[in-house]
Amino acid sequence: MKKKFVAIMMAAATAGTLLAGCGSAPATDAAKADTAAETAATEAVAAATDAAEAVTEAAEGATEAPAADAGEVPGLVEGDYSTPQEVKVWVADNAVDFTNEQIAEFQKANPDLADWTFTVEPVGEGDAATNVITDVEAGADVYTFAQDQIARLVSAGALEEVAPDNVAWVKAANDEGSVGAATVGDTLYAYPVTSDNGYFMYYDKSVVTDPSDLDTIIKDCEAAGKNIYMEINSGWYNTAFFFATGCTLTYDTDDQGNFTAANVDYATDAGVAALKEMTKLANSSSFQNGSSAGNATNYAVIIDGTWDAESIKQVLGDNYACAKLPSFTTEDGQTYQMSGFGGFKLVGVKPQEDDAKLSVCDALAAYLTSGDVQLARYNAIGWGPSNTTAQASDEVKSDVALTALADQLQYTIPQGQYPSEYWDRAKALGDDIISKTITADASDEDLMAELQTFQDDCISYAQ
Q: I need a surface site. Which of 25, 125, 355, 459 has the fewest CB within 10 A?
């Protein structure tokens, strides 16, 4: 029996209790919550009347179950859990103790699982996918992984789709970037747990008068004799310009992680506009190439991540401020919001033969990624939440670096898998700008030729 049929059975079993089950939706979903409240009574009656019919439809191939209330954490499907089983969980080393504590609370809330065994093992999110794919059967039942591994995991059959009843809740509870990172095609395959890996702008608010505009930032820093740090010879950072103007650079992989196709359109007018903006920044007397706060001096702006927040705060003192990346305006008057890569941690569930174990794994994944647990995890080990309610908490909102990152992640794409050659080639492109091999006064034709060579090289890495 597959998860789809289990989900329909859950809907039938709980149809009579829909009225009691309506909870409060997150503030960002207020309109949806109002609509749900107005129609709940009608739906409850209809659901109770059609419960038996729903089971029949499931057996005949129905593909979707009624959506769960967006305000509630999906619970355990009603069923028989009298036969204890073991559930293996993989998390990062620094999250093991916290996860054990939360699983203990999960078992308390689900007395039927009192005799079940939950084993938490330290396997980092960067290694989880490789370990699972190597031996899916021996891999963890529930595991945390980095978003750039999701395509491989799906192709290898190592990820179960998110339970249909849980999809609406996941999408309503988490920010758009993390939900996109957990989705392959049109299918949600994982539960977002963090939105905390990416870059944004730290700045000195006594120098920068308008952090939303790159031209103003450059003028302010030049006038003050202060530096602007950005690592433009990095394939991670310089996508901020190209993705801003609408360029694409992604790779497809097979289940062994081999690159099968490159999707690149840098050799376009949009790519030329981005490249011009990079040369404009590099041509500023304030520009310094780099992204490490420990190596930066005399700066008023540095494009960096949350890992350097404390050291930057010490340097800028009372003038410490953070914001999403600025916008830039091109020669034709078009304004573009700087973009780039975003990074997310996700929780996946391995496919299961046993329906009861599958239900437990789904319920545990939902619990460990719920808003309350994400907030507790932030307070315990500093992981930035993907849950929008947790992001709106006083604790997280007071973290100005995480708030700026959350703003920026709305404009990024999740980083997928890239060949090592791409990173070398992107560095070379930035190096050519820094060394003035590619100059600010180069013709559009020359810039297009540079980008065509770059694009051809990137495509060749997948052949």
A: 459
Task: Report helix angle 30-49 to 51-59, nearest 10.
Answer: 90
Cα distances (Å, whole numbers) of residue 431 to 234, 238, 282: 9, 11, 10
Which CATH architecture describes the domain 200-336+419-460?
3-Layer(aba) Sandwich (3.40)
- Percent helix / strand / coil, the chain, rounded to 5: 50, 15, 35
Query: Each residue of 182-233: pLDDT tens digit?
Result: 998 889 999 999 999 999 999 999 999 999 999 999 999 999 999 999 999 9
Indicate whether 70 pLDDT > 50.
Answer: no
- The confidence score (pLDDT) of residue 51 equals 36
CATH architecture of the domain formed by 83-198+340-415:
3-Layer(aba) Sandwich (3.40)
d(C-alpha 282, C-alpha 52), whole Å: 67
Rounded Cα gap, residues 224 and 222, in angstroms: 5
- Single-letter code of the amino acid located at 421: E
Sequential DSSP letters for 95-150: GHHHHHHHHHHHHHH-GGGTT-EEEEEE--HHHHHHHHHHTTTTS-SEEEEEGGGH
Q: What is the mean pLDDT of residues 96-112?
A: 97
User: Is the pLDDT reported for residue 31 higher than 90?
Assistant: no
- Summary mean pLDDT of the chain: 86
Structure tokens at 220: 């302010």
**pLDDT value of position 416:** 85
Distance CA 239, CA 274 (A): 9
Question: What burial class does residue 216 get, using C-beta atoms within 10 Å of its C-beta: 0-12 exposed, 13-18 middle, 19+ buried?
Answer: middle
Environment class of residue 166 by beta-carbon count within 10 Å: exposed (0-12), middle (13-18) or buried (19+)? buried
CA dihedral of residues 191, 193, 199, 200 (deg, nearest 10): 110
Each domain of the chain, given as residue ranges in start order, spans 1-72, 83-198+340-415, 200-336+419-460
Band (pLDDT 50/70/90 cuts) for residue 46 is very low
| Rounded Cα distance, 87 and 4, in Å | 21
Strand boundaries in 21-95, DSSP class E: 86-91
pLDDT at 429: 98
What six digits make up the tokens of 136? 């899916």
Question: In residues, how long is the chain?
Answer: 463
Q: Regarding predicted confidence, which is higher, 417 or 274?
A: 274
Q: Which of 17-26, 71-80, 196-205 is modeled with the greatest confidence?
A: 196-205
**How far is it, in rounded angstroms, from Cα 106 to Cα 368?**
9
Distance (Å, rounded) from C-alpha 242 to C-alpha 393? 33
Q: Which residues, 6+ apart, have CB-to-CB distance to 422 below 8 Å?
A: 235, 249, 251, 458, 461
| Beta-bridge partners for 203 | 301, 321
